[in-house]
Amino acid sequence: MRPQTKRLADVIPAPALVVPEPAVTFTVAPEAVTALAPEPRDDGPVRLELGADELGPEGYRLEITAAGVTLRAAAPAGLFWGLQTLRQLAADDGVLPGGVIEDRPRFAYRGAMLDLARHFFTADEIRAHVDLLAQFKINHLHLHLTDDQGWRLEIPGWPRLTEVGGGPGTGCDGAGPGYLTLAEYAEVVAYAAERFVTVVPEIDMPGHVNAALVAYPELTADGQPVAPRTDAEVGYSSLVAGKEETYAFVEAVLKAVADATPGPFLHIGGDECLSTSAEDYRAFLTRVLPLPAKYGKRPVGWHEIAAVDLPEGAVVQYWRPQDEGTEVAAAVAAGHQVIMSPADRTYLDMKYDETTPIGLDWAGLVPVRRAYDWDPADRLPGVPETALLGVAAPLWSETLRSVADLQYLTFPRLPAVAEVAWTPQAGRDWASFRERLAGFGPRWDAAGVTWFRAPEIDWP
Ligand code: TNX
């Protein structure tokens, strides 16, 4: 059973330090907290202050006394995350438990990935998703914009990518076509930035490119057209490492995406190139990995890229649990940072259990406890805490047909991964998490969010 009274520690992700003052409460209007901007103000019941450098760029200090609330941070991002904490505490009745929270994230990169290629989600749908992610202090939204089944971002000078590649995604039911114009992409990026969420665009190559090959047959090995695909196979398409047309295309695309993206990262994919020879893979990436830096960005790639000599600043995203990660460890030894996304813990497209009607199971089932109960610094030999840029939860969309499907696989597992990424390992505990999580079910219901009533949790 859940406790009857709210506690100051009833927050996800769990704050780094909580000092309750049990005799004290202060009451606010929950809507007023939701409406607060992350900027200094000294009127009203909630004072917001900037200037507490010891809390770091995203940290905050929240003090709730009988006289009111004071939220302090070094930067607006810290005020924003503090407001998310306050918003959770104010939920339902506006009664805030007294005491002090001092909080800052374990990792700088706390990510969620959305696959727009296999099923397209509109700009409005992506924005609504950002709102839900930010409540759990997720600060990076990785958009998987291209794959075999679809190309979802307008690229100036290459109109056929979206005319042809804006096709139906997986399944032939027409549920998933579409693409973002550059203007829509800019609006999504700006909306996310207002919530301190950085968009990380991914153009997946040299594999996962059938949609591009359909649009521009001059990119295929023999220049002959290939057929569009709506099935969920992987590993059959490749850009051609030995063709100059390939690099003209890739550079035009990466320049366009970099120009449209204010954030520091540009993800170039690099996964599952099963129809690219090892030699071609190396030749291709050796030319392509320096391009993000040429246009002012840090390259990120799925961990297969660790097979090549990486340029300075390149980030490796670990995903495939079958791989021992020796190349990832070698990249770390060479000074590179890692984003941890092991599929058997963080993949939101894995089924929760045998009865889950959508999702995949190639990395096993991922119930809430599996998503929660692990330490990213203890996952791969040679990849310690100091090598981790962060943790991210990808959601691949082969089996998704609606926003309800997207939310069903996201909640309640995303909060589990968010706590893995934010809360110090010593401050995390499954028994505590499952108790805190229970309170979110009714809130998601009230907000019209679809979620999975995981049997591991005593939902009210
Ligand atoms: C593997 S994860 C892929 C994706 C699939 C996903 C399905 C990764 C880097 N590649 O192409 O959508 O499995 O779970």
Can you put this structure into words, describing what you see?
This protein is an alpha/beta fold and 460 residues long. The protein folds into two domains: 17-103, Chitobiase, domain 2, CATH 3.30.379; 109-446, TIM Barrel. The chain is 31% helix and 19% strand. The protein contains 16 helices and 15 strands. It has helices at residues 30-35, 76-90, 123-134, 160-165, 182-194, 210-215, 244-260, 278-288, 291-294, 326-333, 343-346, 368-372, 403-410, 413-422, 430-438, 440-446, and strands at 17-27, 46-50, 60-65, 68-73, 95-103, 109-115, 140-144, 146-147, 150-151, 198-205, 265-269, 298-302, 315-318, 337-340, 388-395. The strands form three sheets. It has an eight-stranded parallel β-barrel with strand order 6-7-10-11-12-13-14-15, surrounded by five helices. Helix 3 runs parallel beside helix 5 (182-194). The longest helix has 17 residues, at 244-260. The termini are close together. The model has no long low-confidence stretch (mean pLDDT 95). Bound molecules: ligand TNX. The site of ligand TNX has 10 residues, from loops. This is beta-N-acetylhexosaminidase. One of its GO terms (biological process) is carbohydrate metabolic process. Residues 107-275, 282-424 form the Glycoside hydrolase family 20 catalytic domain.
What is the domain total for the residues?
2
User: How far apart are the termini?
Assistant: 8 Å
Overall geometry:
globular
**CATH fold node name of the largest domain:** TIM Barrel
Residue-averaged pLDDT, rounded?
95
Give the CATH level 1 class of the largest domain: Alpha Beta
Specify the structural class.
alpha/beta
Strand order within the widest beta sheet: 6-7-10-11-12-13-14-15
Bound molecules: ligand TNX
Strand content: 15-25%
CATH superfamily of the largest domain: Glycosidases
What CATH architecture of the largest domain do you see? Alpha-Beta Barrel
Low-confidence stretches are none
Number of strands: 15
Radius of gyration: 22 Å
Domain Beta-hexosaminidase bacterial type N-terminal: 43-103
Family: Belongs to the glycosyl hydrolase 20 family.
EC number: 3.2.1.52
Protein name: beta-N-acetylhexosaminidase
